[in-house]
Write a structure and sequence with these properties.
With 429 residues, this protein is of the alpha+beta class. It has 3 domains: 83 residues, Rossmann fold (3-Layer(aba) Sandwich); 69 residues, Dna Ligase, domain 1 (2-Layer Sandwich); 227 residues, 2-Layer Sandwich (D-amino Acid Aminotransferase, Chain A, domain 1), CATH 3.30.470. It is built from 12 helices and 23 strands. Strands 1, 2, 3, 4, 5, 10, 11, 14, 15, 16, 17, 19, 22 and 23 form a 14-stranded mixed beta sheet that branches. A 4-stranded antiparallel beta sheet has the order 6-9-7-8, with helices on both faces. The chain has a 3-stranded antiparallel beta sheet with strand order 18-21-20, with no helix packed on it. β10 and β11 form a beta hairpin. It is globular, with a radius of gyration of 21 Å. The termini are far apart. The structure holds adenosine monophosphate (AMP) and glycine (GLY). The site of adenosine monophosphate has 12 residues, from β16.
Length: 429
């Protein structure tokens, strides 16, 4: 397959998008790179364009103006809003390729009810669940009486990673169900709520790229979701990641491929869902058996910052092959060592925090990379501009070496408002 050099647009502004930009900029098919809206880190790789990614008409104008040949969508929101369907419906964009699932495919993340039905139909191992709304809330209360704790309550729609609540006490579970369904705790996202069986095990995230027929598996990762050391405190977008994960052995991966990856792709294909993009499945390993906790229709953040630097292939080429339906011809290679990512957040995140603090001494070296998330330029200075601000990825032939390289970067970066977890990866040594 021959691909001409092209201008490429990455949509998003987080550490995931800085990493995708860093990788795609190295592609032999990439001419100019644009990032919408990007961050201070992505300005080194291409041109940031300050537009709202959900304003599809404006994105279209940009794509035409900058002669963009490929669009890679980082976050879920534009996908759930149908950016891929929009692009495919515009005759002026018929020569522009866009990587990501259709609006229907994005429902695998956008609606937990849709995604559960998909798993049930396609016999993909997952927790049993039932979905309730304000009209049958009484049945929801009775269902809680029938099952045993812990009670897992999930808002159906996108709730910025906050829509899952796990409770031991039945009274609290009923109160929470009421909060979600009647008092609209998560707005529209909790118009329906799933009550789900609790899965007791160890979590791991898997990633693959699919064209709806074939797939390319990326390395697995473990994510550290809570704000505090020892997995204490509130949930965040993710405070660190490790790849590979040693408890994921060959036997477990065989089950993952057969029962999860292949059944997911068979489902996408037999249900005629237009899906060319990343799939990120959050799994629970329950006594050696993999179960899907959730699908995401994008890469993980910060998992991308640990996983993508391990990929030796040209990522833009894999994406272009995928969009041509030729993913079956791709064979991938990964660095054998470990990579670990430690997130630097603003003090106070995920609750109240300040922005606008100066950050300095941010450098890559041969054993580590620093990816930006919530950063921007103020004159010549880089300042913090969000909750999760930087990601320090370290590499090593052992996990401890990778961890050491991550934390060396963490210490070098000068920023008075810096918060980070001190235990990333250390539970796995
Ligand atoms: P989600 O937003 O679906 O990834 O859920 C957030 C977190 O809640 C997951 O990472 C798990 O730690 C936990 N969780 C979700 N569903 C279950 C379940 N059925 N059993 C146990 N833990 C769960
Ligand atoms: N780190 C979890 C996520 O990206 O959803």
């Amino acid at each position: 397959m021959i691909f001409l050099d092209m201008n490429i647009l990455i949509i998003g502004s987080g550490g995931r998008e800085h990493t995708l930009s860093w990788k795609i900029k190295q592609s032999r098919h990439c001419d100019q790179l644009f990032i919408l809206p990007g961050n201070a880190g992505t300005t080194k790789l291409g041109e940031n364009v300050n537009l709202n990614p959900n304003d599809f008409e404006k994105v279209k104008d940009l794509v035409i103006e900058k002669n963009i040949g490929l669009v890679v969508v980082g976050p879920e929101e534009p996908l759930v809003n149908g950016i891929v369907d929009f692009f495919e419906s515009q005759s002026e964009l018929k020569n522009v390729k866009i990587f990501g699932p259709s609006k229907e495919g994005a429902q695998l993340e956008g609606s937990k009810d849709f995604s559960k039905d998909f798993m049930f139909r396609n016999k993909i191992p997952c927790a049993n669940s039932k979905t309730f709304n304000s009209e049958n809330i009484e049945e929801g209360f009775s269902f809680l009486e029938e099952i045993s704790p812990p009670y897992v309550l999930k808002a159906d729609g996108l709730a910025a990673g906050k829509g899952v609540i796990i409770l031991d006490n039945i009274k609290e579970a009923k109160r929470e169900l009421n909060e979600m369904l009647i008092n609209k705790k998560f707005g529209e996202a909790s118009r329906s709520v799933l009550i789900e069986e609790f899965l007791d095990g160890i979590e791991v995230s898997i990633f693959f790229i699919t064209d709806g027929k074939g797939y390319v598996l990326l390395p697995e990762a473990k994510d550290y979701k809570r704000i505090g050391d020892g997995d204490k405190g509130p949930n965040t977008g993710g405070m660190g990641a490790v790849s590979p994960v040693d408890f994921v052995d060959e036997e477990f991966m065989k089950k993952v491929k057969k029962n999860i990856v292949e059944r997911t792709i068979n489902g996408i294909s037999s249900e005629k869902i237009n899906y060319k993009g990343f799939v990120f499945a959050g799994l629970m390993n329950v006594n050696g058996e993999p179960y899907v906790i959730e699908y995401n229709v994008r890469m993980g953040d910060p998992e991308t910052q640990a996983v993508i630097p391990r990929l030796k292939n040209d990522l833009a080429e894999i994406i272009l092959m995928c969009l041509d339906g030729d993913l079956g011809k791709v064979s991938t290679k990964f660095n054998k060592g470990y990579s670990t990512t430690v997130i630097l957040a603003s003090n106070g995140y995920p609750e109240n925090y300040n922005k606008g603090k100066k950050i300095s001494n941010i450098y890559d070296d041969k054993n580590s990379l620093v990816f930006h998330a919530g950063t921007k330029f103020e004159g010549e200075d880089i300042i913090s501009d969000g909750g999760r601000v930087l990601a320090c990825t370290g590499f090593g032939s052992s996990l401890s070496e990778a961890i050491e390289n991550s934390y060396r970067k963490v210490d070098e970066i000068l920023w008075t408002d810096k918060y980070f977890r001190k235990d990333i990866g250390k539970d796995l040594i």
